[in-house]
Amino acid sequence: MLTPAQLRAARAILGIDQRTLADLSGVSLPTIQRMEASDGYVRGVVDTLTKVIAALEYAGVELIGDNAASQGGGRGVRLREPMAPPPGHPTGRPT
């Protein structure tokens, strides 16, 4: 399952905008915009999702699911659950 945050992060890592992703995947710009604005998981026609994922993977992005091992060997970023705040930290989150 692909989340809107993963989609935005993948574009950011590649340094491309929504229009470029639309061109690379053969999907319309409004469709990319809707995918990134959705809640929860990206929903849509399976063929459309497949095209977008294939374009990102072809460009060098590895999309990693929850608790899945990465098969790639490059640099990357992975979202995880936040850690417990350190003792004495007022908000528990860095500012």
Report on this structure.
There is one protein chain. It is built from four helices and no strands. With 95 residues, the protein is mainly alpha-helical. The protein has a domain at 4-59: 434 Repressor (Amino-terminal Domain). It is globular, with a radius of gyration of 16 Å. The longest helix is centred in the middle third of the chain and has 14 residues, at 46-59.
Task: Give a nutshell description of this structure.
The protein has 95 residues and is mainly α.
Reported CATH architecture of the domain at 4-59: Orthogonal Bundle
Total number of β-strand segments? Answer: 0
Helix/strand structural class: mainly alpha
Name the CATH class of the domain at 4-59.
Mainly Alpha
Shape: globular
Mean pLDDT: 86
CATH names the topology of the domain at 4-59 as 434 Repressor (Amino-terminal Domain)
Between the first and last Cα atoms, what is the distance in angstroms?
A: 31 Å
How do the SSEs run, as a string of H and E?
Answer: HHHH
Instruction: Give the strand content.
Output: under 5%
Name the helicity range.
Answer: 40-55%
